[in-house]
Every structure is written in C-alpha cells, then in structure tokens.
Amino acid sequence: MNINIKKYWIISFLILAFQHYIFATYESKLYCSVNHIYSGILNKYGLFKDSVEPFIDTSRVKILARAYSDSIVLRMAPKDYTAFVNATKKGIQIKRSSDNNNFEVITTVFPVAQDKLDVNALKADSFALMAAGILYGKNTSTKGMNPGDVNRANNELFGTGLMLAEFSTNAAKVLGFRFVDKNVERGKEYYYSANVIGEGEYGSTVKVTNEFIEEREPYQFQVKPGDGSLKLVWSKDYNRRQFSYYWIERSNDNKNFYPILERPLVMFETEVSEKAPFFDYVDSFNIVNDQMYYYRFYGGTSFAEYSKPALASGMPKDITPPNPPDLLDVSYADSTKSFTINWDFNLDELSEDLDYYQIMTSRHEDGPFIPFSPKLGLEDVGYLHELSGNWDEKNEGRHYFRIDCYDYKGNSSSTNHGIAIVPDFTSPLTPENFQGYIDSFGIVRLNWNKSKSQDVSGYWLYWTNDPSAEFSLVEQVSITDTSYIYYIPEKSLSKYIYYTLRAEDYNYNRSQAHPILKVKRLDKIAPVTPTILKINNDSCRIKLIFNLSPGDDIFENEVYRSSISQKDTGWIKIGTFGMNTEFIDTSAQFGFTYQYKIRAVDTVGNKSQFSPVKSGNRSIDKSLAIISDLTINQLNKTKNSELKWNFKMPSGFPNKQYTFLIFRSGGMDGVKYYQSVSSAELVFTDKGLNPGVVYNYAIQIQSEDGWKGPVSEVKSILIK
Fold first, then answer.
1. How many Å apart are CA 285 and CA 95, to the nearest integer?
2. What order do you get walking across the sheet with 531-538 strand by strand?
3. Backbone angles phi, psi at 258, to 5 degrees
4. Phi and psi for 327 in degrees, rounded to 5?
5. Which of 18, 407, 521, 633 reaches 20 to 30 Å from 121, CA-CA?
6. What is the DSSP letter of 17?
7. β-strand 593-602 against 614-617: which pairing, if any?
8. Bridge-partner residues for 505, per DSSP?
9. Count of Cβ atoms closer than 10 Å to residue 339 Cβ
10. How far apart are the first and last CA of the chain?
C-alpha cells in the first residue's frame, strides 16, 4: 500500500477537530466531546455506553435499515469499544427473515482489510481515510494511563468512528458498519438482526418494507435577521432523531446556490443549550446589510445522505447603534438660572452612520427622559439652557441629563446620565384644613390636608396652653402622615389647648404656620338636645327642618330613621350633617310612613339625648303628572275622532306601571270616565260618533297603586 495512513489520519483528524469540534476539557478532550456530539447518534441506535467501568463485555450490535426498492441498506453500530474490537475480529453476522421467526444468515460483515483499501478512494474521502486510521493507524500510546483513562480514550476513538460512518458510506464500509442487501423484492417486508459472532444467537432486530421514501426536509427552519449576520434556526426535537448533521447552501438571487460549509455541521450540546428548543447557526461570512439571502438547509442521515432541502430567506439589518459621546460635565448656575452640558466624541470610535444626537432630561433617575434640545450635529460640543418664565418650585431639586445618539436607520444609544441640582430656597405651601378634638379618654385627634407643594417631606406640630406664649414641639421629629393622635393626662389639661402646624420640604425649608387651632379641653357634658321643628314634602322628598343644639362646640349632628310601614322597624343612622338647619331624605320610599329623630355630637365626642320623634311620609306631588299637548281631530270621511297627547313621567316619581284614563261627554255635560288605554299608547280613536254632536274629552294618568294625576284641560270637537 502506497499511502501513509498514520500521516493522513493525524492530519485529517486535526483538521476536523479544530474546524468543527474544538475539544477542550480538563482530563480528556476527546472524551468530553463525544458525550456531547455523539449522544444523539448513540441514542438513535439505542446505545447507552458506560465509560467509567472499562472492558465490560456485554455488547450487542444495533442496526438501522433504509429501503431503496432495488436494495436495502443496513447500518450497524456496536454498543461500545469492546464490541467494536470484537466485531473487527469476529465480524458482524447479518440474519434476515420474512416473518420475524425463521431467520437465515445472509452475510458476515468485516472491516475492509488493510491490503484491500482503495488508496485513491481514501485520498478523495477524508472521512474514509480517518476511518482507516482508526483501524490501522498506530499513533496512540497508552503508556502511563490508568485503565479508566484508557477506556475513555478507546470509547472516544470508537465514537469518532461512529461519526465518520454517519458522514461517509466509504467510511462505514471501511469500519464494517454498512451492508447492502440486493437480494430483495420491491414492496416486500423484511426483518434483519445483527450480532457479533459468538455474542448470543440474536442481536438487535429491525423491520423494513422495501419501498423507497424520500427523506423529509428539516422541520421549522427559519432565518432571523441580525446586524451583518443571519441566524439560521431549526427545531431541535423535530429534527435530531432524524438527522445527525446538516448542510447549508446560500444564494443571493434564489437561483445560484453555493455551500457555506467545508464540513457537515454537527451541533454541540452544552449545559446552557441543552434545554433550548431550537438549534441555531450564525452565518456572517460576506454578509451585507439590506441584501436578501436565500438558503437551502439539508439534514444528514445515518446513511450518509441528505434530505430534501428546507427553504428560507432573510435580510440582515443594521441594528447596531452609534457610539455615544462622553458626557463630560453637567452643571447649574444659580446666578443665571441656566444649565450647561458639555460632551466630547471619540473620533476613533465615531460611527460612520451617525445622523444626529439630542440632549434628554428627566426629573427622575429612571426616567422617562424627554428631549431637552433640538437635534445636534458633530459641530456642537456644548449646550446652554436657561430656565425662563416665572419661577416655580417644581424647578428645584435634581435634574438628570443624558445624550441620545441616532443613526440613519433609527438605532439609538445613550450616555450615562449626569446630574445637576437646582438649589431649593422656596418654602412649601402651608397645609390646609387643620382640625381636631380631644375625646372622652383624653386622646387628642388631629388631622390636616396634605400640603399642595410636591417636595414636602413632613410636618412639624406645635402646641401651647396660651396662644400668646411660645409654642413647643409635640414631637421632636417631623410627622410624615397627615394625622396625629396622642394622649394627654387629664390633670395637665387647661380649658383649651392651642395647636399650629408647618410643612417642611426635603431642603429643610419650612412653610408659614397654619392659623392657630383652638381645641377644647376634656369635656364630658353632653350637648343640649336638638329638635325637629317640622317635616315637609318637597318635590317628592322628605325635608326635615331642625332647631339645632345651641352649644358652640357642636361637631356634627346624626339623623336616625325608622319605618312604621315595614317589618323592619329598627332605627338606622341615615346621615350626618354640620350646622345645617335642614336635611333632605332622598332614600325614603314612596307611600311609607317614617319616624325621625336626631342628636348632637360635640367636638370631644359627647352625644346629646335623642330629639322627640316626628313622623313623615314621602308622598307624590301628583300635580306634576300633567298631560300635555292634547289635540282632537275628526278622521277623514269617518265618524271617528282621534285624540293625541304627550306625557313624560317626572324624575323622582316611583317606577310603577300606569294607564291613561279617557274622559268624555256630549254637548254641555261635564266629562266623565269613559275608557282607559295602556301607558304605551299616546293616541286614542273614538269610533261611531253621531254627526252634529259636540264631544268633550280630557285625559288623566292613574298608577297601578291608585294615585292619579290632575285631569288635563277639556278639548271639544263637532262631528260633521
């Protein structure tokens, strides 16, 4: 033989390793890579190798079959390195059956003998050359290695052989992993088994029908655009059991395709990628943005053949933002009330597609940032902005700035933000509606409205027994809430206690003091009982008119109601009011009689006796239920009269059914009830009238519970 197998084995192996698999682990480069690269191949054959326990001879041969109608190709895979060695020495015996019972030996497959190797074929097929190197290359030394390391290295060598057989039919033949059965009939069903001679009667079995089926294309193939690159993505779960490797072709015109790989693409699995549902490959070689690219994507099988191509296309886009400048300085000058922003571009890193940049501002570190300047160019290296108009305390505090850069494609980048602080010399607004009282337990209860200033951090509360004396702090720290409760011992109370309040902002400016609040001392005397002077029905409402308690410390009055027309006759509080002398009950129901009573509550919570009870009834102002626009006409060529009218139920009336009552008379007689029509009718026809007679009509509304509105005006008509 005139070829140096060892030489070409080493060269080819190094090329393949460095170009595609980049083996790099601590103990054994090859061992770790096989765990990741060949796991899909081994699982496809049903192989589960244990490389920790060396030389355990429990091997069996796994087998796959592919029908071509005129032949059936078998691919065999020993379970591990030990089975591989035994297969090279004893051969793999192939048996065939038509019924899965009566198997006959049809051949025994051995690796190609060294002296039978085709030198020219090996030179033309680097995969076959490497397979020959696995069998006959004497380049591996195990000196100084422990048995476990030897076993790992041997299994790695065996795994490399499995991979080579996936890529090349010649490599599979050289290793003894391939057999073509041509003594078959089209459409017939066959069973094959394979085992190493001497290792059991049967190995694994496969069933195949001799009908050629074209390999499907890879599933869910798509192209995702990048910047100067395209990411090819395809489903992991739908493809890895069908394909061991892939091949990619690319075109600029969707007509002329060329490969972008030198070797078949085998996908790695890592701890990070193994949970991802997709494989991906990034194509960046000679890729130009805004150019459409077309791809043919093939899947490679264990029979060293490629599937139909999956087709997809994509256009890379510029998504890289321009480099932002260095934000050098942001400052505020109180004398001119202006901001100064300075920056500088690194010309070496300046993006060629820079369009413009703009200064952005926000009052909060996390934004949102809004434009602060017009669009700027490279000739601008600084910006001055004056705060104009009337001064507003909202101007005070922190101002955040950054510079946003944009290219012609709309991609943007931002600098880190800078900070300028506007000094705060403005006092916050005084809180409003400061009020409170001391209850019967000596608890002071104070509350106030939040200051309308936005930068208030808290409130200072002061007290004194004499408004002409100096006030003291109630708390030595500011109060962040808008209410305050504390206890005063009864013996320390004077007749009144006086309070005032100031707001404080984050810059320690304090507001003007709130007008002094006068709070009466602890009081256990109940107010004088108020009375209900009278109860009126006002526009369908019950109006209560009071004679209030004469005390000057009344805080509120409470109104209670009880129904004597319903089953539930208990008293319920229906409202509270201040010093109003009237209260309108709009929740009372029509037609029911109610009883009312009130009592007064003073500023310390003392409650008066209830007033004497008075009764009221929410009645209906029937005078509002008016029939309007009543008209009467004689229908043409008939002895019939037609009445038309309008009616709109006043708001506040009970939602009950009603009818229209028609009144009629003849001549000079007064009208009397004649007939009724439903509320849906606003027209009535009176038929069969006597000619020469004057008929008088009027209309009235009547509800289902009996109340009636006023009778409309009387209208007359002479029947001709």
1. 49
2. 531-538, 541-547, 582-585
3. -140, 150
4. -80, 105
5. 18
6. I
7. antiparallel
8. 456
9. 22
10. 137
Nearest to 178 by CA among 266, 111, 82: 111
DSSP secondary structure letter of residue 161:
H
* Residue 127 to residue 130: CA distance in whole angstroms: 5
Question: Which ranges of 38-146 does DSSP label H, i.e. alpha helix?
Answer: 39-44, 81-90, 119-124, 126-136
Least confident of 398-412, 558-572, 674-688: 558-572
Helix (H) or strand (E) holding 65: strand 61-67
* CA 610 from centroid of its chain's CA atoms: 58
Helix (H) or strand (E) run with residue 283 in it:
strand 278-283
Secondary structure letter of residue 568 according to DSSP: -
DSSP code for 701? E
Which residues on adjacent β-strands are paired with residue 190?
Answer: 208
Of 302, 312, 284, the C-alpha closest to 219 is 312
What span, in angstroms and rounded, lies between the C-alpha atoms of 240 and 656?
Answer: 76
Main-chain phi, psi angles of 83, to 5 degrees: -65, -35
What band does 314 get if pLDDT is binned at 50, 70 and 90? very high
Q: Which of helix, strand or coil describes residue 698?
A: strand
Q: Which amino acid is at 86?
A: N
pLDDT of residue 374: 92
Side-chain-side CA neighbours of 445 within 13 Å: the count stands at: 11
Percentage of the chain modeled with pLDDT above 70 = 87
Paired tokens of 116: 């039978």
Show the CA angle centred on residue 348, arms to residues 342 and 349, nearest 5°. Answer: 75
Under DSSP, the state recorded for 479 is: B
**Is 283 within 8 Å of 260 (Cβ atoms)?**
yes
Handedness of CA 132, 135, 136, 137 (dihedral sign): positive
Both tokens of residue 473? Answer: 């702090």
Cα–Cα nearest to 52, from 160, 156, 149: 149
Rounded Cα distance, 568 and 623, in Å: 32
Give the residue from 239, 233, 235 showing the smallest Cα distance to 216: 239
Q: What does residue 154 show for φ and ψ, rounded to 5 degrees?
A: -65, -45
Taking only the tens place, the pLDDT of each residue in 152-169 is: 888 888 888 999 999 999
How many helices (H) does the chain have, and how many strands (E)? 8, 43
CA 18 to CA 11: how far, in whole Å?
11
Size of the chain in residues: 720
Buried b (16+ CB within 10 A) or exposed e, 195-228: bbeebeeebbebebebeeeebebbeebbbeebee
Rg (CA), the chain: 50
Q: 């054959």: which residue's tokens? A: 45
Question: Which residue type, as a one-letter code, is found at position 270?
Answer: T
Q: Which pairing describes strands 517-520 and 496-505: parallel, antiparallel, or unpaired?
A: antiparallel
Question: What values do phi and psi take at 518, rounded to 5?
Answer: -100, 120
CA 607 to chain centre: 54
Q: Which two tokens stand for residue 339?
A: 């901001």
Residue 44 has pLDDT above 60, yes or no: no
Q: E-assigned strands of 212-263? A: 222-225, 230-235, 245-251, 257-259
Query: Is 699 in contact with 660 (CB distance < 8 Å)?
Result: yes
What are the start-end ranges of the H helices in 107-146?
A: 119-124, 126-136
**How far is the C-alpha of 514 from the C-alpha of 406, rounded, in Å?**
52
700: alpha, beta or left? (left if phi > 0; alpha if psi -120 to 50): beta
Q: Which residues partner with 683 through β-bridges?
A: 644
Angle at 704 between CA 699 and CA 710, to 5 degrees: 30
Query: pTM above the 0.85 mark?
Result: no
Cα 409 off chain centre by: 28
For the ranges 183-187, 195-199, 592-596, 704-708, which has the lowest average pLDDT? 704-708
- pLDDT at residue 431 greater than cutoff 80: yes
What stretches of 361-519 show up as alpha helix (H) in DSSP?
none
